[in-house]
């Protein structure tokens, strides 16, 4: 299972979904699905733009959790 930390990252920076959508050009629905961890797939261009926007690595946004464990960082 993949865990998406977008909501935590956005919360730490006090950003709203609409802010990220406006600043990155990423569809608001895509950001909403990532934020709520309901996305079933994501384009690599979206991941790249999020990394650029937040100045972070892919592993800062996504975390692999084997067997669906809910281990937080």
TrEMBL record:
Stored SUPFAM superfamilies: lambda repressor-like DNA-binding domains
Cited CDD domains: HTH_XRE
PANTHER family: DNA-BINDING PROTEIN (PTHR37301:SF1), DNA-BINDING PROTEIN-RELATED (PTHR37301)
Short name of one Pfam family: HTH_26
Domain of life: Bacteria
Domain called HTH cro/C1-type: residue spans: 6-61
Example of a GO MF term: DNA binding
InterPro entries: Cro/C1-type_HTH (IPR001387), Lambda_DNA-bd_dom_sf (IPR010982)
PROSITE patterns found in the cross-reference section: HTH_CROC1
Protein name: XRE family transcriptional regulator
């Amino acid at each position: 299972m993949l865990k998406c930390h977008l909501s935590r990252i956005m919360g730490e920076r006090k950003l709203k979904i609409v802010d990220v959508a406006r600043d990155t050009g990423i569809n608001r629905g895509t950001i909403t699905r990532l934020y709520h961890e309901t996305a079933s797939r994501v384009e690599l261009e979206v991941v790249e733009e999020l990394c650029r926007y937040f100045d972070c690595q892919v592993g800062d946004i996504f975390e692999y959790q084997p067997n669906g464990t809910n281990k937080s960082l």
